[in-house]
Amino acid sequence: MDAFKKHSGVVMPLDRVNVDTDQIIPKQFLKRVERDGYEDFLFFDWRFNEDGTPNKDFVLNHPGYNDASVLVAGRNFGCGSSREHAPWALQQYGFKAIISPSYADIFYNNCFQNGLLPVTLDEVSVAHITAQAKEIPGYAVTVDLENCVVSDNEGFQVSFSLDEFKQYCLLNGLDDIGITLQDEGAISAFEAKRQG
Amino acid sequence: MPGKTMFEKIWDAHVVSEEAGKPSVIYVDLHLVHEVTSNQAFDGLRLAKRGVRRPDLTMATADHDIPTTDRSKPIEDPIAVQQLEHLANDTKEFNIQFADMHSPLNGIVHVVGPEQGHTQPGKVIVCGDSHTATHGAFGAFALGIGTSEVEHVLATQTLRQTKHKTMQVDVDGPLPFGVTPKDLILAIIGKIGIAGGTGHVIEYTGQAIREMSMEGRMTVCNMSIEGGARAGMVAPDEKTFEYMRGRANVPQGEAFDEAVERWKLLPSDDDAVYDAVVTIDAASLEPHMTWGTNPGQVISITGAVPDPSSYPDPADRESAERALAYMGLEANTPMTEIPIDRVFIGSCTNSRIEDLRAAAAVAKGKKVSSSVGAMVVPGSYNIKQQAEAEGLDKIFTDAGFEWRNAGCSMCLAMNPDHLEPGERSASTSNRNFEGRQGKGGRTHLVSPEMAAAAAIAGHFVDIRDWPGV
Ligand code: SF4
Predict the structure, then answer these.
(1) What percent of chain B has pLDDT over 90?
(2) What are phi and psi of A146, to 5 degrees?
(3) What ipTM is given for this predicted complex?
């Protein structure tokens, strides 16, 4: 897994609440057995018209956000299905961080497994970043995981918090399985105790 | 010190290691696997040259992709074939029990676990599927995980978790006439909201839950995720033990009685404290259905499509407007005046024998409306057999319902069963997100009884007015 320390990038505003994983990546793409190649399917049903042409009204298709790498969205982002294809698609499309007032639990965990940082900020800060991203062409923020701060060039700065262990793993790009396997002795002992 | 909740008891009994500032390592007793969220996990194992630690505690079934039509014919979709073959190869290579679509043990993962006695009180159960909460109906701690975590469990038989908070949802009094477990859970989600349970494990308590069958409890626990919760659970009792007795994979004879004594220690202590408590007055409940594009957008059958301008919160208002536009509905339309095109009775929420009996009782001797296409998809091969032995298939087919083979089917429409754009369904499944049952499809979640009645009437009906109910 790639480490995440600090990232600066253009912000794309997805000004909706309760964006579910069925929208992030619709089910027809879950039959693929690969772990990559999901970028073209991100937000597929919102992004493309019936005839396959890009839906010009959808924010992902606005030329100003072509280079966006930070997604700002309304509360309860990633609700619904547990599909890890959702963070895969977001990341493979080019998003490095998400900013939202809240996330659904499974999606939130899945992000960390893939080096995609979900930043939780208060509603006011999210509304501010959303408004700036809509109004200022090329509006960018810097997400600093080491210091837990989101800032922009206009003097805006806000800190965020997250589980320290998650922060540590992401900063160092650590693989969860590797860490747990260091505890192999404890797992074997637990199994032995149960059988005894 | 106050007593413990059932969740805390199960958690404490499964801690393999814990260290301040780190998530705990929790042992997993049962890992359920299906074709859609596991391929990449097995590939990850191979890449890292890791094995499956406990194939004996792992079981796989094919359910999401498989056709519900004639199984003797080859599957037409080559990508689905590839995915199913992937799982067949993975389970063979790693020595895991696999019920493919031709196996008599096949069915929806959350239906076959309990049916075959794998699901037991006190267990920690995981599956790469958010509806794993279903198994909590037996007093298990069962939660959905992502594919990376599936790989983690395969490799280590453990999961890294930070202890969740607890929420008690107490349903006071008996369910009134015509109100089913599905109506109850829809009402609960409507009350707490789709993120209301975030970070929590819900324990459902109260008279209505105690009086509820195991099938009903599974329906309720199943949709805990629709309220945002990590898991849902119900304390085991005599109903639980009776349901389990004699099933394959549960202890038999004396060993069963001993297990029951252990399981009786699981329920939350009287003085246990929950982090949050929600009380539902059962007497106030009516049959419910969804009107919008998330499971929290619910209303009583006697109600009307809400007017978005009635929402004080601008984000909720915008979301309601978007939902009405997608659903093709006008504000203030009475729910019973909404015509439907399709009916789906099935899914891990409502495809068990009791659900099929309830739907059949409504459909018996009637005819599906000429403007409606209706199908019944049992949750497992065994349920299908049992329903046929009871003659339920005949009742359905005589009434004009299609009688299909088991699988997830039109719950998420990964197989050929799906809505066409603009089609409106009455569905017993659990999600009404945009496009869930097919791009442009419009889903209303209801109970099996209300789905069957809607199929016949051609529009939604208040089941309490149905002749013979
Ligand atoms: S029936 Fe639906 S919700 Fe249940 S496991 Fe299958 S796809 Fe998921």
Answers:
(1) 97
(2) -60, -45
(3) 0.93
